[in-house]
Amino acid sequence: MTAPTAAPHEPIDPHEPTQTGPQARAEQRPARTVLITGGAGGIGQGIARAFLAAGDRVILADRDAVAAAAAADALGGEVAGDSTADAVASIALDISDSAAVAEAFAGLAKRGGVDVLVNNAGILSVHGAVTELDPEAYRSILEVNVIGTFGMTQAFARHRIAAGGGGAVVNISSIGGRQPTPGMGAYESSKAAVDSVTRWAAIELAAHGIRVNAVAPGPVLTPMLEMGMPEGSPAREAWAGRIPLGDLARVSDIAPAVVFLAGSGAAHITGVSLAVDGGQLLT
Ligand SMILES: NC(=O)c1ccc[n+]([C@@H]2O[C@H](COP(=O)([O-])OP(=O)(O)OC[C@H]3O[C@@H](n4cnc5c(N)ncnc54)[C@H](O)[C@@H]3O)[C@@H](O)[C@H]2O)c1
Prior knowledge:
Elements: H1 22-25, E1 33-37, H2 42-53, E2 57-62, H3 65-78, E3 88-92, H4 98-110, E4 116-119, H5 135-162, E5 167-172, H6 185-205, E6 210-217, H7 223-228, H8 234-240, H9 251-262, E7 273-276
Parallel strand pairs: 1-2, 1-4, 2-3, 4-5, 5-6, 6-7
Helix pairs in contact: 2-9, 4-5, 5-6
The structure holds nicotinamide-adenine-dinucleotide.
């Protein structure tokens, strides 16, 4: 193996900190516009809240237009300061409808464009054993989770390339794509494909300065999941028992990883699927 050599104009001293103080650490940058699909859902709203806290603008895109508008209103009410008027917006969008996706990006381009895409929309509810599952049900989950994620990524990439390149995509995958649970294979194989689409897009879009990564949560206590699995319930105990760190993730455990992968701290990271799972993949 050849030892790495420092460029003559850029000496490397391993004892020298690369940053010298708070000024160096503070991220001075203009606000980004972040498009979050499935933005009306539990994890989508948490991701939007985290980007708003980082000073960015968010657009919640969801096929449930009423829920997306309500979520945008609620989040807008939480944002403090004078610049709240345009900090949160919502659009109605079915990510599996390629014509609607193209139309949405044409509209967004006229309104200042999008810097970051979070492909969070997904269907979780298709369950069934390999001997039982209706192929049409399988097709329906692939249509949204895989083709929808691909279509959004393609439209975003075209949009960013037309704008001169740069930008970031963060896909919301699942550790289920790497660790099976009986009855959940349709969903899990869709998320394995999301990880693969992440790597595919990352290697091709790197030349345009577009980074593509994924966050792969274990089970997350969204408000909906918490209702179905209250603390102390057998289902909650069964899931928690698989997790070395002892409990399911909160939405607030997932969102910071998404903001990180979208930001300059991850400038040299592309094509990864970062597990945020309390160590479940270790078991
Ligand atoms: N909740 C978990 O335990 C968990 C774990 C791992 C990964 N995830 C992933 O996180 C993401 C968000 O999950 P959640 O728990 O917030 O679910 P959720 O059901 O609360 O939110 C999903 C949102 O996506 C929207 N959506 C569904 N199909 C769409 C389409 N075709 N076009 C546009 N919007 C659409 C829904 O209307 C909903 O608002 C999903 O991709 C899911 O697979 C969730």
